[in-house]
Amino acid sequence: MPATEAIRKKVSALPHKPGIYLMKDRFGTVIYVGKARDLRKRVSQYFHPSRRMGWDLKFNALVEAIHDFDFHVVRSDPEAYLLEGKLIKEFHPRYNVSFRDDKRFLMLKVNLNDPIPNFSFARFKKDDGARYFGPFANSGALRSTLALARRQFNLRGCRAFTPGESDYKHCLYAHLKYCTAPCVGNVTRGQYLEQVRAACDFLEGQCREMQPQLEMEMKKAAAAHDFEKAAELRDLIRDLNETWKRTEKFERVPYTLPLSINPGNDLVELAKVLDLPAPPHRIEGFDISNISGTFAVASLVSFKHGRPDRANYRRFKIKTVEGQDDFASMAEVVKRRYSRLLREAGRDVVSASQNSNSGTATRRPSQITNFPDLVMVDGGRGQLNAACAELKKLGLEKIPIIGLAKEFEEIYLPEKSEPLRLGLNHPAVKLLQRLRDECHRVANSYNAQLRLKKISESVLDEFPGIGERRKAALLKKFGSVRRLQLATLEQIAAVPGFGGKAAAELKQFLEARG
Q1: 434 and 420 in contact (C-beta within 8 Å)?
Q2: Are 40 and 46 spatial neighbours (Cβ–Cβ below 8 Å)?
Q3: Which of 263, 302, 393, 493 is within CB 3.0–4.6 Å of 309 for a Cys-Cys bond?
Q4: Which is the CATH superfamily of the domain at 5-91?
Q5: CATH code for the structural domain at 462-512
C-alpha cells in the first residue's frame, strides 16, 4: 500500500539517530519491531516505490499491512538491540522471527554472601541477594571477558560452587596457579573476597588501565612476528570494549505502546449507527470455514466491552449440511447456539423460582441468561437472512443482528434493503473488523486442526487388515496417531483386537513411518 500523507509526514520528522520502530496495522496491533542506526533512513526504505520490485513476498505483505508506526530513540546501537529484543518478547509481532522464544540476554551473577563467591551466567534476575551485571547483548564477548577476569584476578572457575573434600585434593586451577584456591586454604575468605570485588569493579568498566596494557602486549607480539598471539589480544580488546559498552551504556527504557483503539468509544459509535438503545455489552460473531464442502466447521467469538472474551469462544462441527452451503451452515450453528442458551435459561428460571419459594429473591430471565446484546454473522444478505430465520423460530427475533460483508465492509441490517457503508476508518467498522478477523482465525485454525488429524489418522488405513472397529479402538485408547506411535508394545497389545503378533506388526509399521 502506498504511504499515506500522514505516514510521509511522520517519516520526514524522524531523527537521524539510533532507535527502534514498531509497525502497526489498522487495529493498532504491533506487527513488526525493528532497530536502526539511523531511524529516518531505515523507516523511509519501507515506503520507496522504486524498491518494491526487489521485495520478497513476506516483506510485501508486511508493507501492505502497515497503517501506522511508532518509534523510540535510544543512545546507541547496542541499546537498540537490547530494546528490540525486549519489545518483541512483549508484543509477539507476527512478522518477527528473532527473539520470539523465551530466552533472555545473558547476565553475570555473583553472590558475595556465598562461602566461596563464584561468577556464573544467568538469564533472569532474582531477588536472591546476588549482584547482577548486564544484560549483555553479545554473549561471546561476555564469556571472553569473564575468562580474562578470572585469569587476571586469580578467581575460581570450578564447576562445583561448594567443593567437597575430594575436590580439594585435585584442584587443577590451583596447580596451574590460575586460582588462589581458597577451597584448600591458600588464602582466607576475606582475601579472596577482595579479589572478587576487584573483578566486580573490572566488569563495571572501571579498570580502564588494562586496555593500554593489552594494546602494548599486542604491539610487542606483532613486532616479534607472533601474529597469532597478536590476533588473540586484538580480539580480546574488542570483546572488552563490547562488554564495557553494553554494561555502561544500556539502561532499561520503560516503553508503553500508545493504544490507537478505544473500545468504549467504538461501542458508542456502533450503537449510534445501528440505533441501539445502549452500547452493546456483549457481542457474538459467527463464521463458517470449509474447503470444497469438507471439514465444515464454525466459530463463535465473544467480545465483552469491545475486547475478546476467550472464555466464551465456541467451535462447532457442521452436522446436518451436505456439501458447501454457507447459508444452511450458518442457520444450523445459530440454531444450536441459542437453543442451548434457551435450555440453560429454562433451568436457571426453574432454579430461581425454587429459591424464591425458600425466601430467595427471584431474577428475570434476561438477568439469568447469557444472551448477547448484538449478533454479527460473517457474510452478506444470505447469511443474515438464514440467521434471522432461526432466531425467529426460537422467539429471539428481538436480539439485534447484523451481517458484515468482506469486499467493501458493508453492514447489512434485517430491516433495511441497502447496506451501510461507513468507510474503513469508522470506529464502528474497526470494531466489527476485529471481531470478524478473530472469527476467521478461530474457524480456520479449527478446520486446519481437523484436516491435520484426519491426515494423520489415515496412516492407519495403510496397515494391512485393520478395519474401522479396530482403528476406532486404537484412537479411543490413545487419542491420536502421535500418541499411538509413542506407546509401548504392551500398551498396544492391551487394546481389544490386538494380540501380541498384531501389536508387534503395528509397532513396526508405525516406527517405519516415524
Answers
A1: no
A2: no
A3: 302
A4: GIY-YIG endonuclease (3.40.1440.10)
A5: 1.10.150.20
- The region that residue 82 occupies, defined by phi over 0 for left and psi between -120 and 50 for alpha, beta otherwise, is alpha
Report the phi/psi class of residue 438: left, alpha or beta, with left for phi > 0 and alpha for psi in -120 to 50.
alpha
For 108-140, the pLDDT digits (tens) are 788 888 877 878 888 777 777 788 876 776 666
The candidate with the shortest Cα–Cα distance to 386, out of 446, 326, 471, 470, is 326
Residue 125 to residue 133: CA distance in whole angstroms: 10
Any idea where the domains of the chain sit in the sequence? 5-91, 106-249, 263-450, 462-512
Helix (H, G, I), strand (E, B) or coil at 21: strand
**DSSP, res 113:** T
Whether 100 has a pLDDT exceeding 60, the answer reads no
Question: Using H for helix, E for strand and C for coil, what is the string for 405-429?
Answer: ECCCCEEECCCCCCCECCCCCCHHH
Strands (E), 177-270: none
In the chain, DSSP finds a helix count (H) and a strand count (E) of 19, 13
Distances (CA, A) of 375 to 342, 410, 426, 468, 496: 16, 15, 19, 41, 47
Cβ(83)–Cβ(72) below 8 Å: yes
Q: Compute φ and ψ for 93, nearest 5 degrees.
A: -65, 140
Predicted structure pTM score: 0.46
